[in-house]
Design goal:
2 domains, three-stranded antiparallel beta sheet, 9 helices, alpha+beta, 264 residues
Length: 264
């Protein structure tokens, strides 16, 4: 597989020799390549599950704006509130009293503690006493107070290994689907890229070529993710198109009975 990856990246015209690969090899290639996209998350999970700096910043901003309430108080390890309230922090919700959407991971401030809900089920519960959270002013705008509660939620977040692993698996399948969609699109568009004499190449063979020619899509996205340039993922599609154009325009069609050396 490593040889096919390097060939697909460095010599796109050579992938024509992979058209006879077995479908089992093609499926394995499609499933294996997206692992590169989740590799940074896997390494991070092995070392220590952590909330990203961007997510923490979003959490802090929500705590300083959308999660400030005049009618909610926490005193003597007891939360008093009059109605259910919710705020979104990217990949999860913060709630007062009860969660709103069972499909979204929720951290719910209840009367005597914080519950973590995942897919509508209570996964963990932390009493305010165990968290040493005797009081908290939900109207506060002081930086120290906001950082204190944000760090507390961050620590709870980082203890939810089940959620982090589940999200990682979901992320992997999203990348697989994304990769497959790119392959299908380029398999169709390849009819326009191929010379007129190749217009009738069976779709199955064009699909196999697109699987290998789309390797650059995964590598390019991997590099962009590592560098944090998420908004530049369109570059990956451009590279996939260029690789397909390069490969198909390099194919030479010989008249029947003529070998590559020109001897009939």
């Amino acid at each position: 597989m490593f040889k096919k990856i390097t060939t697909s990246l460095s010599k796109p015209p050579m992938v024509i020799f992979f058209m006879k690969d077995r479908w089992s090899s093609i499926v394995l290639y499609i499933l294996m390549l997206p692992i590169f996209m989740v590799l940074p998350s896997i390494v991070s999970l092995i070392n220590q599950p952590a909330m990203s700096a961007d997510l923490y910043q979003e959490l802090y901003e929500v705590m300083s704006s959308d999660f400030r309430f005049d009618d909610v108080t926490l005193e003597n390890y007891t939360l008093n509130y009059t109605e259910i309230k919710n705020a979104n922090v990217g990949v999860f919700d913060l709630s007062i009293g009860a969660y709103e959407d069972p499909l979204v991971t929720s951290y719910v401030f209840k009367t005597e503690g914080i519950s973590v809900y995942y897919l509508g089920q209570e996964l963990n519960y932390y009493s305010y006493e165990s968290l040493s959270l005797e009081t908290y002013d939900f109207t506060s705008t002081e930086s120290s107070n906001l950082h204190m509660i944000s760090i507390l939620i961050k620590n709870i977040y980082q203890q939810q290994t089940v959620i982090i692993v589940s999200d990682l698996i979901l992320q992997y399948f999203v990348y697989v689907l994304d990769f497959l969609i790119v392959i299908l699109i380029m398999s169709v568009l390849s009819r326009l890229l191929a010379p007129a004499t190749l217009i009738n190449i069976p779709f199955a063979l064009r699909f196999k070529m697109s699987v290998y020619l789309s390797t650059i899509y995964i590598l390019s996205n991997f590099v962009l993710v590592l560098l944090g340039y998420y908004a530049l993922n369109f570059i990956s599609m451009i590279l996939v198109y260029v690789y397909h154009l390069w490969a198909y325009r390099s194919i030479k069609v010989l008249p029947k009975g003529v070998n590559p050396n020109g001897v009939k």
